[in-house]
Amino acid sequence: MTAAMTDAELAAHLAECAGRILLEVRASGMFEGKALGKAGDETANQFLVHAIRAQRPEDGLLSEESKDTPERLDKDRVWIIDPVDGTREYGEERSDWAVHVALAVGGKPEIGAVALPGLDTVLRTDKPVAVPEAASKPRLVVSRTRPAAEAVAVAEQIGGELVGMGSAGAKAMAVVRGEAEIYLHSGGQYEWDSCAPAAVAAAHGLHCSRIDGSPLVYNQRDTYMPDLLICRPEWTERVLAQVKDLAGA
To answer: Is the pTM for the entire model greater than 0.70?
Structure first.
């Protein structure tokens, strides 16, 4: 890894390396359950934070696993990372978890990579892959334990099918990978949950916004993000209209 890497190359390289580290931590057999999730979070975060600070020392940094500081707010370029998105799934030795590495520029999710280590896959903004054909019946990917009420209601209105899955990154990449058409989330997230997935999804031609259609804005003082919509363009207008109808009901 050298400073000659582009930002997109760096994001993909770091996401892939962190994913390998996480698999090694899990394979060590030294931890299980919540202890495994904690060990994975701490180890991957340490690697990512040190690497980004070494390679892009002038940029800001926001990580789920590090104490936030106000310095990033004065930066135009801010790396936003989630070392293990889906800690529960990682601890349960499932495959629907992810590593998020993104670069927000001027508050926009410009560059990013989402590693799916359990699937030996890294999806990235600089090397988009062909998005498979959509299914005739729309599939909405939702939390496997707490499906968002709006997603359930929209699925009923458009004749869709709910597909339960773990982490936010896994759900978003399911749309990119052709395993779903729509990811509608309204249960609250944080910037690190969606920045890299939104950057990657947008690079693959998908629609990314709040569920009212407003843009996703990152590097805010308050990192809470109430909702998210990532979907195939052909479903955007109808999904947004259904969400609007629900809000007015």
So the answer is: yes
